[in-house]
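User: Sequence in, structure out. Go.
Assistant: Echoing your sequence, followed by the structure tokens.
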Amino acid sequence: MAAIFHHPTTGAAATTTFPQSILSPHLPFPHYPSKSPQVISSISLSKTPLSLPKPKRQLISSSTTSPTQFPSASNPQTLQPLFPQKPNTHSNSSINNDPPTIDYFNLLRLSVRYGDIELAMSVHASILKLEEEDTHLSNALIVAYLKLGLVTHAHKVFLGLSCPNVVSYSAMISGFAKSNREVLAVQLFFEMRGSGIEPNEFSFVAILTACIRLSELKLGFQVHSLAMKMGHLECTFVSNALMGLYSKCGCLDFVVSLFDEMPQRDIASWNTLIVGVVKDLDYDGGFDLFRNMQRIDGFRVDQFTLSTLLVASTGCLAWMGGREIHAHAQRIGLESNLSVNNALIGFYTKCGNVRDVVALFERMPLKDIITWTEMITAYMEFGLIGMAVETFDRMPERNCVSYNALLAGYCQNGKGSRALVLFCKMVEGGVELTDFTLTSVINACGLLMEVKISEQIHGFVVKFGFGSNDCIEAALLDMYTRCGRMADAEEMFYHCPANQSSSITWTSMICGYARNGQPDEAISLFCLMRVEDMVVDEVAMAAALGVCGTLGFRAIGEQIHCLALKSGFMCDVGVGNGIISMYYKCGNMEDAVKAFSLMSKHDIVSWNSLMAGYLLYRQGDEALDVRSKIEKAGLNPDAVTFLLVISASRHKLKFS
């Protein structure tokens, strides 16, 4: 079956074929790859209970309730969690119009409002003394504990219920999903199904939150099918959560189709679609959706919309677009919003200058750990290592992300020794080590090109069991090649199982061959990568373009240039520099100049490449003219620039 929809960006009709199990739950379910097969291996939406422990329940009766609201998975602020409202009537209940019971609800609300855990526990103790079970009151207690971060306490209240209802289950599923216990959330969902309780829209939002955090696309398809069968897709919050899952898993066509079929949308629906489009690198499409949102539904943008559009502006280096979004945020009163300001710091780091970033940071009325970390990244991006370290020292609190930003900044600026010293301090101080941490310290070893240190770091990585990670393996390959250990790099690369190899490891090997004077092997591996239909990233393209220039392979270089255009990598400075270098080394200075002029942003390497091309063709005046343009662009010349200027000056004197 196919769903016909109109893409909100282009307006063109398109056809998306959903898996059969979505549109017809009774048909066989096809296999879809799961990113966490070891977590959920054989789940079906039958009503067979799973083996979740069910202790003997202590209390006796239950009462009917109204649904509890839970946050949307795609936008946590879409649904505000509320305490279950006390029903107007209770049949055969001794708590009807009972003032003490009403006080319990009010006290629980106060405990959450002021973060008073002791008050919540006192109310819990009083509830336990009641002669009859009140499921509605127990549900309010579960929600209060979850809001206070006491997931274990909430679970104990849940286990004490003799007849938990859909609200009880939905609250606990949501609580587990948001507290890194996603597998328990999934198990509890199927226990609820096995007990004969039908999920409501809040149950679906809760289980989809777990699917999003697990990136469980297969389970998400089944939940989609069940929601469709039960008629809950008309609920905006359920559709938003499904869109969030498909966006997380890269299924943009499904996101668009769901969006088109929604009977009613809210701002979170538009935000989820915009996020999906921007994540797919369609930055212009994100701005088109922003305009359509205001024109079609008349929604006023919120902080999530503006933050996403700033990410789009950063991705496509749209200086004016980002400035306009900044001005729009000021017009609608969001200039002091924390998330918007954090996104603005990232935008001005990539598209502005350090003065813009510092001025914004100093004006911010509220700063969090993300703000401080963004400033460390910004200073490192501009090469201001001292300012980055000073900012790190001034931070009110730090986490592993802050340390990682400083560590990566040292590597980015060629300070391998300082990166190793910081890493040792992190290990001694018990700071959490992530894949990003180890990747950065491996890169630091590559910068130092010390064989002994590289062996020690490799041993550390193996000892802590991180060797099977693709990013770390790629970093190890890169470290081997930088240290001249090509035999070890080849052994690691060619002994990696085919089903575990990724494009990033191929990229590392291509760069290693190019770096160690083996251009034939590099271009052969790049061509094999294309034959294997693997994703080629901008780093591999830049390396292959450099090799084509070295070997004089102009025809292959032109094909890679076309591939870069098709893949949308022309905004990448490294790819642009590689194209300039390839063309002038292959005897086509005219195309090299044209490629330079089409680049949206230049760095010092871009100007050096252009100057080197002019010198190669004995055009000393043009080379010296490039030197004056470097000064006008506000860039700091490096050692290569000065050597090229000296060569250009000698050339001019020789032929004058």
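User: And one key feature?
Assistant: DSSP finds 34 helices and two strands in the chain.
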